[in-house]
Design goal:
The structure holds 2 protein chains of 2 kinds. Chain A is mainly α. Chain A has one domain. Chain A is built from 6 helices and no strands. Chain A has helices spanning 2-37, 45-58, 60-82, 89-111, 124-152, 155-158. The longest helix of chain A has 36 residues, at 2-37. Chain A is elongated. In chain B, the strands form 6 sheets. A 4-stranded antiparallel β-sheet of chain B has the order 1-23-22-21, with no helix packed on it. A 4-stranded antiparallel β-sheet of chain B has the order 5-6-7-8, with no helix packed on it. In chain B, β21 and β22 (395-399) form a beta hairpin. Chain B contains 3 helices and 23 strands. Chain B starts with a helix and ends with a strand. Chain B has helices at residues 2-13, 17-55, 139-142; strands at residues 70-79, 82-87, 93-97, 101-105, 130-135, 144-152, 157-167, 170-179, 191-196, 201-206, 225-230, 251-254, 258-265, 270-276, 282-286, 323-325, 331-336, 349-353, 359-365, 368-376, 384-389, 395-399, 404-411. By secondary structure, chain B is mainly beta. Classes of the chains: A mainly alpha, B mainly beta. Chain A binds chain B through residues 28-29, 32-33, 35-36, 38-39, 41, 43, 47-48, 50-51, 54-55, 58-63, 65-66, 68-69, 72-73, 76, 104, 107-108, 111-120, 122, 154, 156-157, 161, 165, and chain B through 1-2, 5, 8, 34, 37-38, 41-42, 44-46, 48-49, 126, 185-186, 188, 210-211, 213-214, 217, 296-297, 302-312, 315.
Chain lengths: 165, 412
């Protein structure tokens, strides 16, 4: 039973990382393309789509690594907090994911030999935009986690009991 | 069911101290595991570019027959990350060390124990510090030495060209001739090579500053450009952008990333540069005044993270490279061989590399690459920072190491 619970949590976490990776990759591609467009280069929709797809293949491993490293402690902490502050649970997960990605970018830049690892996060606006993918991932994790908690909780407990068990 | 919940609650409340410590141990195990996963994930993420760079060593060369048997002699050791060397008319050599020291090696090959005094302070970082050294073409009469170094701080720095007079073991009249603007953060992509042209001017390479890559297309500043200057640092009136409003008059070419190789082929009157691509897309270029070499709107390279820098590998109006190295070899220095001792190498371009740990011999005919390349000196297993065409017909190499070496390649 306990094993199944852990497996389910791992699945929720994997889904959150996947969603964060896809969203973050797409956002960073659009920021990079915007920067190129500002230099007077035309980027038709078909090229934009192709580049986004290429980045989903090429950049996503980096984004997945960052997302996994950032979301693991953030979501674990959010779960802990959510059991105490139930009225802000959804916001906790989204905010946690967002902040975690921002911190991950900051740490990566401090550790990496180059000034900024992910080019799209060179500006504050860019970093905030790409990190917003962490909020989406955090939200997805919350939806899955709360749904599975509801399913696992007996009816009586749902009517006034706890979902901690 | 209610009873069961109550029992569970009771069981939790009557947990013994031993059970609590077991639970805490479990929590600690979980936290440790979590920390390990985080560290591993960051390591994998940050290690990806390094792994990609390591793969760069596999960039193929068109096989050329082992052209000439050679022997490698050690001239000097104990040079801390040497960056550049210049040959003095008396047979001696000047060597820069990245940390800011200018070293003298006499004609007998003996390294002076003390560095040359009065070199200007430098901002040393992983890729910057004291970089190029070159002697004035009229050094025999004026004793002038030119060098490039990083000015400023980690937060705000760029490349500076300075000139001084060499008096024995000391520099005098140290003058800043040119400061690349604007200052940028971090020590990456500084360029820093210089070469003299026969028209009494010099050309200096300036990197894009890494985070400011789009500025390589901005003609109002020096980032990602080569600049052409008179030997006193003034702007030659025939520079391609002189007199245009909002354009830096020093600019000779633009659209570069990080050029660490500049060589003038006097026989064919051609100026060559090479530059580091990000992940792939290292280039050898033929310089044309006013040319735009495309970075970052056109490149064959990807960003270190695997992201596309631009959708385009070529764009009309930009100069295509003569040669590409993908995966990257990390080209760091360049020379056109003019000596007599290696006759088959005459006129060929030699490119030292950091990642491939080699020197690439690019075969040339009348100043044009033939398409053949030869990978040399892999047996050294060392990052090679610079390669020079010696006045004695030998090829000279500097290895990029804490205990760097000056090596001489002669026929066997």
């Amino acid at each position: 039973m306990r094993y199944r619970g852990r497996l389910r949590a791992a699945g929720h976490f994997a889904a959150a990382v996947a969603v964060t990776t896809i969203a973050g990759t797409i956002v960073q591609t659009q920021i990079n393309l915007h920067d190129i467009q500002q230099l007077g280069v035309d980027i038709p929709a078909a090229i934009r789509l192709r580049t986004s797809a290429e980045d989903l293949l090429g950049f996503s491993p980096t984004m997945a690594g960052l997302a996994a490293a950032a979301l693991l402690p953030a979501l674990a902490f959010a779960v802990w907090l959510a059991r105490r502050y139930r009225w802000v649970r959804g916001a906790l997960f989204a905010l946690g994911g967002w902040c975690a990605l921002l911190i991950a970018f900051f740490i990566a830049d401090a550790v990496a030999p180059m000034p900024t690892l992910v080019a799209a996060t060179r500006t504050i606006a860019g970093a905030v935009a790409v990190a917003a993918s962490g909020a989406v991932g955090g939200g997805v994790f919350y939806l899955l986690w709360s749904r599975s908690a509801r399913q696992a909780t007996p009816l009586v407990a749902r009517r006034g009991g706890s979902i901690d068990g | 069911m209610v009873d069961s919940l109550v029992c569970n609650a009771q069981r939790r409340t009557i947990m013994t101290g031993k059970a609590r410590s077991k639970k805490h141990a479990g929590t600690a195990r979980f936290l440790r595991a979590m920390a390990a996963v985080c560290v591993t994930a960051i390591g994998v993420t940050l290690g990806a570019p390094a792994a990609a760079a390591a793969l760069s060593a596999t960039t193929p060369a068109t096989p050329a027959q082992a052209s000439v048997p050679y022997r490698i002699e050690t001239v000097a050791t104990g040079l801390e990350h040497p960056w550049s060397l210049a040959f003095l008319p008396d047979g001696g050599m000047l060597v820069t060390e990245r940390a800011g020291r200018l070293r003298l090696i006499d004609a007998a090959g003996k390294l002076a124990p003390q560095p040359i005094a009065n070199t200007p302070p430098v901002a040393e970082m992983r890729q910057s510090g004291l970089m190029e050294v070159a002697i004035d073409p009229d050094f025999a009469t004026n004793r002038l030495v030119y060098f490039t170094h990083t000015y400023g701080t980690v937060q705000a720095n760029n490349t500076q060209l300075s000139r001084a007079r060499l008096d024995g073991m000391s520099l005098s009249d140290v003058q800043p001739l040119f400061l690349a603007r604007p200052a940028k953060a971090g020590g990456s992509n500084n360029g820093g090579r210089l070469v003299f042209l026969p028209d009494n001017t010099l050309v200096l390479s300036i990197g894009d500053g890494f985070d400011l890559r789009e500025q390589a297309q901005n003609p109002a500043n020096h980032l990602g450009k080569t600049v052409r200057l008179n030997r006193d640092g003034t702007i030659p009136p025939d520079n391609p952008y002189v007199g245009r409003a909002g354009v830096a008059g020093e600019i000779f070419t633009m659209g570069h990333r990080n050029m660490q190789g500049l060589a003038y082929d006097a026989a064919n009157k051609r100026l060559f540069t090479h530059e580091h691509g990000p992940r792939g897309g290292d280039e050898l270029n033929l310089m044309a005044a006013g040319g735009n070499y495309g970075w970052p709107i056109a490149t064959q390279g990807l960003d270190y993270t695997g992201a596309r820098v631009t959708p385009y590998t070529q764009i009309p109006g930009t100069q295509a490279p003569l040669l590409l190295w993908t995966p990257s070899v990390a080209p760091s220095g360049m020379a056109v061989y003019t000596g007599e001792r290696f006759a088959p190498w005459q006129g060929d371009i030699f490119v030292s590399t950091l990642v491939e740990k080699s020197v690439r011999r690019v075969r040339m005919t009348a100043g044009v690459p033939t398409g053949e390349q030869e990978i040399l000196f892999k047996e050294l297993n060392a990052r090679i920072r610079d390669v020079r065409d010696g006045p004695d017909g030998a090829l000279y190499l500097l290895t990029d190491e804490p205990e760097g070496r000056l090596l001489r390649v002669v026929p066997r």
